[in-house]
Amino acid sequence: MIGFDFELVNKESNYLFRLLRQFDFDRFIWHIPFHEVYPIDDDVDVFPERIISGDKFKEIINNTYYLVFASIGAFPIESSFNNVTNYKEYRDSTCYFYLICVDSCFGKIFCKDTEMLNKIKKECNGEDILFINDIVHEDDQAKFY
Fold first, then answer.
1. What are phi and psi of 54, to 5 degrees?
2. Which helix or strand (DSSP H or E) is residue 48 part of?
3. pTM higher than 0.85, yes or no?
4. pLDDT tens per residue, the chain (145 residues)?
5. Distance (Å, whole) CA 130 – CA 145
6. Do 99 and 19 touch, CB atoms closer than 8 A?
């Protein structure tokens, strides 16, 4: 397994935190190249920058917001950073984790650590975060936006 598909109930929540709560956020730099995520009481995007430290990312995603779409990668702090736009670039990079969510509810998660991937998958509770299926086939052309 290289990842999994999931589906969210289309509502305001802190879905990203709930999915990623197992992470040691401070070990990573978080890259958010494409996103439309709004706090419930404002029209300002919740991510003020495209590159965010782990503690700031955790603080942001632990609030309630409306997730329209997001493309989010985690890079170990000590690694080199590069833009990731498809599965091949992800596989060949130092990117540890990648999440894509579109249309407020359809998502994919990739992680190079199978143990962490299984921990994240357990957060799919069957109520408002639904596990759909494992991704086992590498598709080099799969887009990450």
1. -60, -45
2. none
3. yes
4. 899 999 999 999 999 999 999 999 999 999 999 899 988 877 777 998 999 999 999 999 999 999 999 999 999 998 887 888 888 899 999 999 999 999 999 999 999 999 999 999 998 877 899 989 999 877 655 666 5
5. 21
6. yes
